[in-house]
Amino acid sequence: MGDWTVHIVDDDAAVRDSLAFMLAAAGFAVRTYPNGSEFLSVARSLRHSCLLTDLRMPDMSGVELIRRLKAADAALPAIVITGHGDVPMAVEAMKVGASDFIEKPFDDAVLLEAIARATGERNAPAGDGGIADDIVARLDTLTPREVEVFEAVVGGLPNKTIAHALDISPRTVEVHRANVMTKMQARNLPELVRLALAAGYDITSPVRNPINR
Amino acid sequence: MVGGQGVSSSKPFRSFWLAGRHRPLYGLMVAIASVLTVFLLRYALSDVFDDGALFLFFTPTILLAAMFGGIGPGLAAVGLSLIMVMVLEQLVLSREIGLLDFIAFLSVGIAIAWLGEAFLRASIASTTSAEALEEREAQLRTILETAFDAAVVINAEGVIISFNPAAERQFGYRLDEVLGRNVKCLMPEPYHSDHDHYLRRFLETGERRIIGTDRIVVGQKKDGSTFPMKLAVGETKTESWHYFTGFIRDLTEREESAARLEQAHGELARLSRLNEMGEMASMLAHELNQPLAATINYVQGCRILLRDIDNPNAERARAAMDEASRQALRAGDIIRHLREYVVRGGTQKFPESMHTLIEGAAGLALLGSRDQGVRTEFRYMASHDTVIADRVQIQQVLINLMRNALDAMRDTTRRELIVTTRNDGDMRNIVVDVADTGTGIAPETIERLFQPFVTTKSNGIGIGLSISRRIIGIHSGTISVFNNQDGGATFRFILPTLQQMGDSDG
Q: Of A13, A50, A92, which Cα lies nearest the Cα of B293?
């Protein structure tokens, strides 16, 4: 673990410094940046590094930062941190290349695991043929209603909104959602989103159009 | 009805006419007098008529008696006439009268008596109703004159034809100043200019905008100041007359009870309060999350640092850190649930007229404010004012902005609240400006004004403008503020019109 450097981009100094403190305690080399532009200026020279960025920042959003890194040919494993209710934005970040997202506040174990996954070589890159087939097989076990819920969930919609859009009770949405997680063998939402992306699912378009307001 | 108009004019005659108890007696006297008169007349003229026109002379007496006394005196006149005819037969006639002539006269006489009775009844009915009408009119006048609410009656041209004392009090005009003037003098712009048009449109199309409902609108006093009022309009229409009566309650009047104020606020106030609570919870959740996340990070960092130290105290401190971290995460969960709770299942958006929204919001914003003497002006320059909006939310923004404006003008001498609308971007946007002549906003505050918990008021919590920004954001619009050149501030929000919405759908 020790030979990886974690680069933290967050406009909130308290969150930035506390993250640095925690990750340093866990044995990582850490560097912090108050905004995306500062990180971009050094990103090309980095080796063996991982990015941990906030999503909502005034000058450049986390999504925009990842997109620009890619464009500058300086892509690196990236984890985004979201506030509540920013799931659609987090999904957007994963579409442009982020490997994971974490909702604030989080347990250190969750973050450390996400970093391990992002930096570890054991994970095959998304879109790998064999895995995709496997995911498609799992998708085939979903009922039509469960597919609808799956699409809405990975689109980042809250249960209440899904219930409203599908005209079923929030309670029923919860049941469908639990079934989806079990059948897809996903432990949490980021994992489900990763699976959907790996299966080549176009997440945003089918879901948000009917419910978009 | 035929004779009705002729007889109902002079009072003594009418009272005689209607002297119900004595009517048969008068009728009988009329019968006797008229039959005797006709008898004498016919007797005197017997040389002229010879044997002719005997019965004909007596027929008017029957009608006269029946008209005065009803069928009884009418029949009496028939009987008397028959006797007189027989007397005449003996005195002057050269021949005998046939039985058939008597029977014919008798039949015609009864018919005439019956007709006279019917006429009498009709006359009584119409006279009675005319009197009742006069009495009701007097009652109505008393009611209007003592009513607490202002009542203004206009005709189809919009000209004021009645203005009660409460209206004089509310608007500051004397009766003789407004009688004959157009009612638009009681309204601020743009209603002032548009009212004739509204009235014409109603008369042409019959499409009701205000009649039959009561609405909160803005009225203008003689001195130019504006006040919120509740207006109910009724319509009176006959073949020859078309009136509109407006009942107006001044909602700022001091006697206003708290209950009535509450009622006038109604649904809008309740919903906006709920909205405000929800937004506040949501915002608190967001704001608290950052320090909470930082706290958890520090605690967990400490725990990791303590992990490899082999010391009983370090062990206990690590357990305490675990617990502290769990508690902080629990706080995070509570906030998460709170936020989930206030996230609505989607706002209810419908096509709404911005001008109608402004009108309603203005009434509520001015309502209950003790600020007298604020001149309110609406300049509606937007020709396309339809937006897809949650009515309650947009009105809440408008009310927030207008209340802020009123607050800002509390200590200034010139108090003008001017709401302007116009289209820009090829009718795709509507720009709404709420401008005041208050103290303006300090440059150091203006930057942060829309952030939560930033306020310039001593009694504010700084949530109104941040909610307004969120609401406008939800409606795909923008909101901004700038100081005016000649003092005061202008809040401006821009929303897409239906025009633009239609484009993006298709």
A: A13
Q: What is the DSSP letter of B182?
A: B
Contact yes or no for A106 and B336 at CB 8 A = no
Distance CA B442, CA B456 (A): 9
List, in order of start, the domains of chain B with CATH numbers: 4-144 (no CATH), 147-250 (3.30.450.20), 258-341 (1.10.287.130), 350-505 (3.30.565.10)
Query: What is the pLDDT confidence band of residue B345, given thresholds at 50, 70 and 90?
Result: very low
pLDDT tens string A151-203: 888 887 777 778 888 888 878 888 898 889 989 888 878 888 888 887 777 66
Cβ–Cβ below 8 Å for B297 and A163: no
Contact across the interface for B340 and A160, Cβ inside 8 Å: yes
Residues of B in Cβ contact (< 8 Å) with A159: 340
Residue A47 C-alpha, separation from nearest chain B C-alpha, in angstroms: 25
The pTM (predicted TM-score) of the whole model is: 0.46
8 Å CB contact between B224 and B417: no
CATH code of the region A129-211: 1.10.10.10
- For domain A5-119, give the CATH superfamily: Response regulator (3.40.50.2300)
Give the residue from chain B lying closest to A12, CA to CA: B290
Give pLDDT tens digits for B163-183.
988 888 888 898 888 888 898
Contacts of residue B173, defined as CB under 8 A and 6 or more positions apart, other chains included, come to: B163, B167, B185, B186, B222
Q: In this model, does residue B9 exceed pLDDT 60?
A: no
Q: Do the interacting molecules here have an ipTM over 0.90?
A: no
Q: How far is A129 from chain B, CA to nearest CA, in Å?
A: 37
pLDDT of residue B71: 84
| CA count, 13 A, side-chain hemisphere, B254 | 1
